Amino acid sequence: MAGPRWVSSFLVGIAPSYPLIALAAILVGAALSVETIWATLVQQRVPSQYLSRIVSLDMLGSFALRPIGFAGSGILASAVGARPVLIADGIAGFAVFSLGALTPAIRQLN
Which of 7, 14, 20, 44 is the most buried (most CB within 10 A)? Predict the structure, then answer.
């Protein structure tokens, strides 16, 4: 789960200075707490007979597909520049994160 890491990508894309990039790094650290909450919720809410399947799908999306994203981003950045790719990545990440955050079933978790 990427969590709010989209914020750091977006900030690095629009950053006019190093202090803003440092702020992005701090936000990535804060995003780690969101990933811890996600892992805890998965372990608490998913029935044990399905837990390994759900975690493997989560890891597939989180780690196995990452090199494909890096390769695609590199190709795109060489074509249009790094800054537009970082900004677009931040916007796309925000959209995906918002879909999950606005889902009523997720928002009503106790």
Answer: 7
Cα separations in angstroms, 25 against 20, 57, 70: 9, 27, 19
Q: What is the pLDDT of residues 86-103, one digit of tens each?
A: 888 888 888 887 887 788
Question: What values do phi and psi take at 76, rounded to 5?
Answer: -65, -40
Single pTM value for the model? 0.64
Count of Cβ atoms closer than 10 Å to residue 86 Cβ: 21
Longest dimension (CA), the chain: 50
Domain containing 68: what range?
5-107
Which pLDDT value is given to residue 50? 94
Task: List strand residue ranges (DSSP E) for 36-94, in order.
Answer: none
